[in-house]
């Protein structure tokens, strides 16, 4: 995508963090923003802010893990706004805790949001884009899907087994999608940010079996690390916009993102040693 003006963007997890920041960055470039989140007031606030910068949009309360809800959402988007030009699958959660204390229910929850949610958004809206493009000359086909993974997709972390696993799956899914959807004229980009000032540390769930005082300590430690890093979501959003313009495949963002990527490629044994460092359990 070289020209965003007049287009429509669907963004999940749009109530805060990368979702809100990217919504505002795209609104500044003339896109209509369709903000989806379980937090409807937060999504409405994002649309309100976007309307000050661009053509505005609409907010929707959606559970990305619920395929029926996502299909209903996609039908509403198509009926009310047409097929979107850009879809960003950003909704995500984190669960902190040792592997043996991470219950099956914890795994179901995080896979549902972090992986199944990306599958749902990509498959349902990707099909809309493909159907729109068929019959058009190749140069006129359009559509782009952005999937938000993490620097954690490159490296193991003993306190985040479910989070690292789902984010690594999102990265591989995106690579497969990119290969498959290229013939449909649809671009796919996977973004892997390092630390940034979002709410994910405070809002992260803690695996069963972790004492409450330890859980609170982990939350405080995570919040402090993100705050001290001083890398705002707006910088990640700017990199996302540039990646879409260039149709980049996998994009690491900030120092930690690049470091994790290169360590995974050239020093995996170091990654494995670092992963063994106790997390305070």
Automatic annotation (TrEMBL):
This is NADP-dependent 3-hydroxy acid dehydrogenase YdfG. Keywords: Oxidoreductase. It comes from the Bacteria. Pfam families: adh_short. InterPro entries: NAD(P)-bd_dom_sf, Sc_DH/Rdtase_CS, SDR_fam. Belongs to the short-chain dehydrogenases/reductases (SDR) family. It comes from Actinocorallia longicatena. Gene3D superfamilies: NAD(P)-binding Rossmann-like Domain.
């Amino acid at each position: 995508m070289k020209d965003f003006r007049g287009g429509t963007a669907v963004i999940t997890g749009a109530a805060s963090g990368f979702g809100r920041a990217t919504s505002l960055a795209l609104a500044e470039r003339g896109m209509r923003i369709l903000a989806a989140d379980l937090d409807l007031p937060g999504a409405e606030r994002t649309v309100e802010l976007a309307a000050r910068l661009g053509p505005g949009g609409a907010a929707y309360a959606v559970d990305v893990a619920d395929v029926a809800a996502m299909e209903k959402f996609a039908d509403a988007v198509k009926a009310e706004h047409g097929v979107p030009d850009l879809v960003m699958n950003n909704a995500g959660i984190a669960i902190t805790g040792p592997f043996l204390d991470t219950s099956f229910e914890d795994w179901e929850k995080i896979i549902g949001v972090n992986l199944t949610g990306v599958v749902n958004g990509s498959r349902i809206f990707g099909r809309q884009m493909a159907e729109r493009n068929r019959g058009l000359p190749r140069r006129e086909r359009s559509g782009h899907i952005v999937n938000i993974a993490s620097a954690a997709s490159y490296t193991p972390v003993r306190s985040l087994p479910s989070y690292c696993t789902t984010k690594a799956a999102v990265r591989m899914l995106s690579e497969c999608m990119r290969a498959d959807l290229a013939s449909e004229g649809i671009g796919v980009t996977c973004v892997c940010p390092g630390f940034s000032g979002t709410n994910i540390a405070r809002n992260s769930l803690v695996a069963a079996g972790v004492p409450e005082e330890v859980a609170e300590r982990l939350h405080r430690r995570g919040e402090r690390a993100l705050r001290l890093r001083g890398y705002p979501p707006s910088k990640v959003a700017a990199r996302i916009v540039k990646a879409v313009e260039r149709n980049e495949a996998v994009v690491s963002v900030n120092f930690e993102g690049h470091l994790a990527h290169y360590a995974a490629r050239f020093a995996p044994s170091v990654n494995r040693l670092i992963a063994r460092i106790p997390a305070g359990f």
